Amino acid sequence: MKQLHKQSSMPISHASQLYSPKSLKHPRSLPRSITYLLKEQRLLFILVGVFIGFTFFLLQPSLSPADPRPHLFSATRASLTTDPDPAAAAATYANSNPVARNNPRYSNGVGRVPVGIGSKRRRIVVTGGAGFVGSHLVDKLIARGDDVIVVDNFFTGRKENVVHLFGNPRFELIRHDVVEPILLEVDQIYHLACPASPVHYKYNPIKTIKTNVMGTLNMLGLAKRIGARFLLTSTSEVYGDPLEHPQKETYWGHVNPIGVRSCYDEGKRTAETLAMDYHRGAGVEVRIARIFNTYGPRMCLDDGRVVSNFVSQAIRKQPMTVYGDGKQTRSFQYVSDLVDGLVSLMEGEHVGPFNLGNPGEFTMLDLAEIVKETIDPSATIEFKPNTADDPHKRKPDISKAKEFLNWEPKVSLREGLPRMVDDFRNRILNEDEGKGN
Question: What superkingdom does the record give (predicted)?
């Protein structure tokens, strides 16, 4: 017993050394990690895997998908490697590649363009997009494949103008007043929000000038934050009652700053100032369009503008109202021509301003006669006193738009007016049926 007690009292560490299985079985064994690799040919499989991976990365350029636009890139990439003048080759690549042209990262021709980036669908916001012009612009943008967000407070816009787009996955409608800021992520901003007819902008002149100033500030601020291109729809009213005829973009105008139309005239002039200051001071890409009288389907039936007034009155068998002696002149462009001009301006490289209008000039009496021929030869004319600050002449010089935008109107008044009359006749008929007439 004593002997057993002595053995059991032996230090544990010493005992473990005497009876350790490792020390008995593998006195000179390799580390366990190396032993694991050597068993079952694991090392061979690892080496084969490394070789396959290395081979794949070497051959990757030849295995990548074919460029969907080889006509844009093949020649220019070759020129970058063979052209003795690298700077000229880089410039050629940047000019021929739309991605490089629009992205400073590729402006020097350096950098790999990800496959498919040039065909990326654009995301566009149109303020006032439920209005007359805005809804036609939205139709064009949707038709060419863009995602469009319409922002409208429905003061003059109507859901009926865009209801045909409800359910389209590329269309979104937000009820919002641009006087309040809004946060969006878009590539382009078409800023159309503002009442454009005298009846509407005189109804609340303070709100009108807020829309022109605060609304434009908010949308320019958004463009600055997200790097979007911004197009301002200004107006021929910035020329006031012009002393120059026809009006060129270099003409500074003859505007009454305290008149009843000043909320719109001076508001748009201020909006142009803001756009140019954001362009010069903050680097925002801006475009400015000065829109002349436009007509077409979806105009408000009683908005006070001469074409809609004459057409509505003639359809309703009412006398056509001519203010003053009827010898004041206007130029009328069809809405599809204007929309084409706006898109050309946005996609172009020139800031503007650009006159967008039809240089065909008509007196109010001429227009009344054309409306009579189109709708009712027996229609009569009623003369009333002219309104304050009403311009006597208005005709755009569009030579600048022809040269830099390759744009000019295509639809004549006699061709476009019947299209508008059909739309007005249907809406007036439905309106009368709703009243029980």
Answer: Eukaryota
